[in-house]
Amino acid sequence: EVQLVESGGGLVQAGGSLRLSCAASGFTFDDSAIAWFRQFPGKAREGVSGISNSDGSTYYASSVKGRFTISSDNAKNTVYLQMNSLKPEDTAVYFCGTVARADLRLVGYDAIKEHSVEYWGQGTQVAVSS
């Protein structure tokens, strides 16, 4: 059974940092590609960042480039999203999901859609106060 479990969300002041974790199981992690999405109230999920766990390629949406860093620990089957210089507009529920490697690059073009994700985690809330 595929499982993705996010953690690390919380409340932080503007300018602060959080690190989200996505612990994965039930599939071959080393061959996978995982993306982080976020969802604002009443909106569709939008891609934030993605990583290929086979070759380490990373991709970022324009809204977070230079502030967020994605990484993975293949020994722990876990993907991380380090979020620095947080802004109130980063407030959202953050989800990780498995994506086809062919779609991963779309994150960098702000073009990845929810239907590219096969499996989702349950989400973790991030709130940034001004």
Which properties best describe this structure?
mainly beta, 11 strands, 130 residues, single chain
Structure description:
This protein has 130 residues and is mostly beta strands. Helix content is 3%, strand content 49%. Strands 2, 4, 5, 6, 9, 10 and 11 form a seven-stranded mixed beta sheet that branches. It is globular, with a radius of gyration of 13 Å. The model has no long low-confidence stretch (mean pLDDT 97).
Structural class: mainly beta
Please state the CA-atom Rg, rounded to the nearest Å: 13 Å
Q: Which ranges are low-confidence, i.e. pLDDT below 50, for 5 or more consecutive residues?
A: none
- Please report the distance between the alpha carbons of the first and last residues: 40 Å
**How do the SSEs run, as a string of H and E?**
EEEEEEEEEHEE
Helix content: under 10%
Gross morphology is globular
Number of distinct helices? 1
Nearest-integer average pLDDT: 97
Tell me the total number of β-strands. Answer: 11
Hey, roughly how much beta strand do the residues contain? over 45%
Largest sheet: 7 strands, mixed
